[in-house]
Write a structure and sequence with these properties.
Layout lengths: L2 H11 L12 H4 L7 H7 L2 H13 L5 H17 L4 E5 L12 E2 L1 E4 L3 E4 L3 H5 E2 L11 H4 L4 E5 L6 E3 L2 E10 L8 H19 L9 E15 H5 L2 H6 L24 H16 L4 E6 L5 E6 L2 E2 H21 L2 E4 L13 E9 L12 H20 L1 H6 L22 E2 L2 H11 L8 H11 L3 H6 L10 E3 L4 E3 L9 H28 L4 H15 L12 H9 L8 H6 L4 H9 L5 H56 L3 H4 L1 H33 L2 H29 L10 H6 L2
Parallel strand pairs: 1-8, 15-16
Antiparallel strand pairs: 1-2, 3-4, 5-6, 6-8, 7-8, 9-11, 9-12, 9-13, 9-14, 10-11, 14-17, 16-17
The protein binds adenosine-5'-diphosphate and magnesium ion (MG).
């Protein structure tokens, strides 16, 4: 075994689980480091408290004087918990989170000092934003960016820093982050869903979106991860032959969580409790060393923040446990990758889940309305939804027979399909009393019963109804949930807006009763959106062909999928719903392309390096051993040596061939990479996708073949079996 590999493996042998102190009940820890309602009630004046609540519930502005009060109280609270610094915490277009810490400490006259934090520091900051991706927004306008307090997501303390969730916008107001469009989309959903809710409940005043994500990830020992330049630099393995035992025995899924991983999880959960992240579920996933954590669902903006925070906390906690967390969607070839299922629903101000069937026919009609409108929205904007999960890393996962395909479709199960089929046959126009009774008793009246024993699950569907919520499964493990959720809430809001206009028209012009109008429109929607409903196997060519016939898009590559972001259809939609301007969309498109090209560039460089600096020299050393051996055999056995050394000679030839191929392919790839770098934007991304990326597999193939031939003692790269099965 090579020195690097040996040392790395030696290190892991001495690891034992870190004991995590579990002194208090989880419920006692929950939210202790969050400036939540409870803390606010303790620390704020009544006027300040009410003002913040008003801002959270109705989006009203908090005036300067109150902001000063809130800031002082927040600082007192934070200092009582040992905080020394504060930061505006935001989510730039890198997809990660950003923070710049400032001390509360200020000196007066050089000799005295005090802790200070006022309204201005709370409400707005001007970070040096020049190095964040902006997709051209900040070239056109002022170079300045601002962060501004988002009171709907509470401040929290991490380590010794008070973190204030903020939006990040350009001087001219364009969003430079992922949170701002999400907040606007949530506003749009609130407006249009509330208007539709009023058909069924006069007291409806607000609709919020809820989100419960499920985060998958791999845990790899950090010494082993460090021994692999590809994991270090790209977050995934660019080569590595699959081990004799992978996941074929399916013995990891829901199995006993290994001791070290368990200790990491306990530590992580404790941190999450303090931060108010309501994690509830933990289990082994399908692949070896793959796990999942999931929280109780929350209001979507908070849930998105909590997911971003969780990913950050995981990195920090993992260091204590000598692990590296991999969020990449496909860190290992031949083994399942990681996703982040986004379960979501809509909830009205009286706590009704609008995607959950109710106890009365009226409640069920409300359920059907939101259910069918969602399906219709996905049908109309399926290509946009596909674009919302496009990323260089998710590209490895979507459409690979372990994850949803790149074709969007909706799965609702056989029983709800039958309900929709029945509704499709409702008479057009006015309904007879008999038909109304029939509908109420036999169709919509039966929904709760049928859903109770609805056990349908279709793991191949990208967008599935799961009894009282939809689950968007195409989202990648590495993604910021705000991106797909913004698209989803915007398309549903737009659809609900259309629906209300159409119902109002039937009631006004055709003099239909409201429920008749609703039935009429829903019937049309069911017909119009049939193409998006698919209950079969989403894997394989049969569905691809069928989907094509149905007119559904199938954008396989990331650049192709991203293009949709700036289509006229997208621009019209986002501008109409006031979620993003054309410029903001274009910026995100440019950032997406740029990130694609850069990541491909890095991967091709790393692969080229490993192939030529690690793999080829090792193969040559082994080949020399074989040559030496053959020479010796010849010396002893003379003319007969060719028979005796047949295996060696064959191997020498095979190794030679692989080496030649690797060298030639790396050179060719480099030529193509140089060409790709000469282009910009879409052209560069497409060139990388079509002309550079295909080399990855080819080069990998030859390297992986060599891995199986070369003496294990020489092989420098930690192997899959060591990465994945070391406890
Ligand atoms: P799985 O998909 O692994 O079978 P579940 O179907 O139990 O698991 O999904 C659980 C996830 O769904 C949890 O993260 C939970 O928070 C979320 N969830 C449940 N109800 C809602 C809801 N009304 N809105 C949003 N998310 C929800
Ligand atoms: Mg799930």
């Amino acid at each position: 075994m090579s020195r690097i590999r040996f040392n790395a493996l030696q290190e892991t042998l001495h690891r034992s689980p870190i004991k995590v102190l579990q002194s208090e009940k989880r419920s006692t820890l929950f939210g202790q480091n969050v400036f939540n309602k409870h803390a606010m009630q303790q620390y704020l004046t009544r006027a300040a408290y009410e003002s913040v609540m008003d801002a959270i519930e109705h989006g009203t502005k908090i005036d300067r004087k109150i902001a000063d009060q809130v800031a002082v109280s927040m600082k007192d609270w934070a200092m009582s918990k040992g905080a020394t610094h504060y930061t505006h915490w935001f989510q730039p277009l890198t997809g990660a989170t950003a923070e710049k810490h400032d001390a509360f400490f200020e000196s007066i006259n050089g000799s005295l000092a005090m802790e200070k934090f006022d309204g201005e520091q709370l409400v707005q900051q001007q970070p040096d934003a020049a190095s964040f991706p902006h997709g051209g927004i900040r070239n056109t306008f002022e170079a300045r960016g601002y962060t501004a307090w988002d009171p709907t997501s509470p401040a929290f303390i991490y380590e010794t820093t008070l973190c204030i969730p903020t939006i990040f916008v350009a001087y001219t107001g364009e969003a430079l982050d992922n949170k701002t469009p999400l907040l606007r989309a949530l506003q749009a959903i609130d407006t249009h869903a509330t208007a539709v809710c009023k058909f069924f409940d006069k007291n409806a005043a607000k609709v919020s979106a809820t989100l419960g994500w499920e985060q998958e990830f791999f845990l790899i020992d950090d010494a082993l991860a460090l021994s692999r330049p590809d994991i270090q630099l790209t977050g995934r393995t660019l080569l590595g032959h699959s081990p004799a035992k992978g996941q074929q025995l399916e013995d990891h899924y829901f199995g006993t969580i290994p001791a070290r991983a368990m200790s990491f999880m306990q530590d992580l959960e404790q941190e999450c409790m303090l931060l108010g992240i309501p994690v509830k579920t933990r289990h082994n996933e399908v692949a070896p060393n793959q796990f999942e954590v999931a929280p109780i669902f929350e209001e979507a903006n908070l849930a998105v923040d909590h997911n971003s925070l969780l990913m950050d906390v995981m990195q920090k906690v993992s260091r204590r446990h000598r692990f590296k967390v991999l969020f990449h969607e496909k860190p290992f070839a031949g083994i399942n990758g990681s996703s982040k299922h986004n379960n979501w629903s809509l909830s009205s101000n009286n706590g009704t889940n609008l995607l959950s069937p109710g106890k009365t026919p009226m409640k069920n009609l409300q359920f059907l309305t939101f259910f069918i409108n969602t399906i219709k929205a996905v049908h109309t904007y399926e290509e946009l939804l596909r674009g919302s999960v496009a990323s260089p890393s998710n590209e490895h996962r979507l459409g690979t027979n372990e994850a949803p395909p790149t074709i969007m479709s909706v799965f609702i199960g056989s029983q709800l399909s039958a309900v929709l089929d029945d509704l499709e046959n409702v008479t057009k126009g006015k309904l007879s009393p008999q038909e109304k009774t029939d509908l109420k008793l036999n169709i919509i009246g039966k929904i709760p019963e049928i859903l109770l024993d609805n056990t349908d699950k279709n793991r191949t569907s990208p967008f599935a109804f799961t009894g009282n919520k939809f689950e968007f499964r195409a989202v990648g493990a590495l993604a910021n949930c705000a991106i797909p959720m913004t698209v989803l809430f915007t398309i549903v809001a737009k659809q609900l807006k259309e629906f209300k206009i159409e119902v109002d028209a039937l009631v006004g012009e055709k003099k239909l009763k409201k429920d008749e109008a609703v039935f009429n429109i829903l019937r049309e929607y069911i017909k119009d959106s049939k193409a998006i409903r698919f209950e079969g196997d989403g894997y394989g060519e049969v569905w691809e062909k069928e989907a094509k016939k149905r007119g559904l898009s199938n954008n396989k590559s990331t650049p192709e999928a991203l293009k949709v972001k700036i289509s006229d259809k997208a621009i019209n939609l986002f501008e109409e719903m006031q979620v993003m301007s054309k410029m903001e969309l274009k910026a995100r498109y440019e950032v997406g392309l740029e990130s694609y090209s850069k990541k491909m560039q890095i991967e091709s460089r790393v692969l080229g390096d490993i192939a030529r600096n690690h793999v080829v020299p090792t193969a040559v050393i082994y080949q020399n051993t074989l040559l030496e051996n053959t020479k010796n055999l010849k010396e002893i056995f003379g003319g007969d040596y060719k028979n005796i050394a047949k295996e060696q000679i064959d191997l020498i030839m095979i190794i030679s061939n692989h080496i030649t191929q690797i060298n030639a392919l790396v050179i060719e790839m480099e030529v193509e990479k140089t060409k790709a770098n000469k282009f910009e934007g879409l052209k560069s991304a497409e060139y990388y996708s079509k002309k550079v990326k295909p080399f990855f597999e080819e080069i990998r193939y030859h390297c992986d073949q060599l891995e199986t031939m070369v003496d294990d003692n020489l092989w420098p790269l930690t192997k899959y079996r060591e990465l994945l099965f070391t406890k």
